[in-house]
TrEMBL record:
Its job: DNA-dependent RNA polymerase which catalyzes the transcription of DNA into RNA using the four ribonucleoside triphosphates as substrates.
Source organism of the structure: Tagetes erecta (African marigold)
Keyword Transcription attached: yes
Name recorded for this polypeptide: DNA-directed RNA polymerase subunit
Cellular component terms (Gene Ontology): P-body; RNA polymerase II, core complex
Swiss-Prot/TrEMBL keywords: DNA-directed RNA polymerase, Nucleus, Transcription
Start and end residues of each RNA polymerase Rpb7-like N-terminal domain: 31-87
Keyword Transcription: yes
Biological classification of the source: Eukaryota, Viridiplantae, Streptophyta, Embryophyta, Tracheophyta
MF terms in GO: single-stranded DNA binding; single-stranded RNA binding; translation initiation factor binding
Protein family according to the UniProt entry: Belongs to the eukaryotic RPB7/RPC8 RNA polymerase subunit family.
Amino acid sequence: MPNMPLVYCERNNSSPLIWVLRKMFFHIVLERNMQLHPRHFGRDLREKLVSKLMKDVEGTCSGRHGFVVAITGIENVGKGLIRDGTGFVTFPVKYQCVVFRPFKGEILEAVVSMVNKMGFFAEAGPVQIFVSNHLIPDDMEFQSGDMPNYTTSDGSVKIQKDSEVRLKIIGTRVDATEIFCIGTIKDDFLGVISDPGIVNMKSCMY
């Protein structure tokens, strides 16, 4: 079964005429050898295998395939092989799953996790993205203090911890167990979506 991209569109709040197409989710088939202790052998052996598979695999990252979001089905459970001296049995399990892998040029909405003079880090689900200060609009300057931030000269826009931003992936680094991205907000319709400072101020007024 080939990798099938799960494509969906999301309306861009900054411009009703622009739709953002995402192809970061894929439905693929993978295989994994699962080991079970003899105490799990019985009528519910398959259920035990599936439960262990979900616990071991969901939420993990493979540099080749991406982040495993969810297991959607079991295609096949092969014959078990007894491991000498342990009693454990290894079963080859072929399963379907949804994986998340960002690519260069994708648009993401992320939450800022840290801000410093070099730029800021943001998280979109399991993915961490770094936006360098060179990829932040020129009219935003770094402000140090208890809550480091990037603020426009008129103070109308601020990027700080917990701010929601829309950014564009311009590069990725893939390791065996990790995917790290470089992003930019220096483009049309990118930047701050919501400022936690403004939200907190509004809540205090009521």
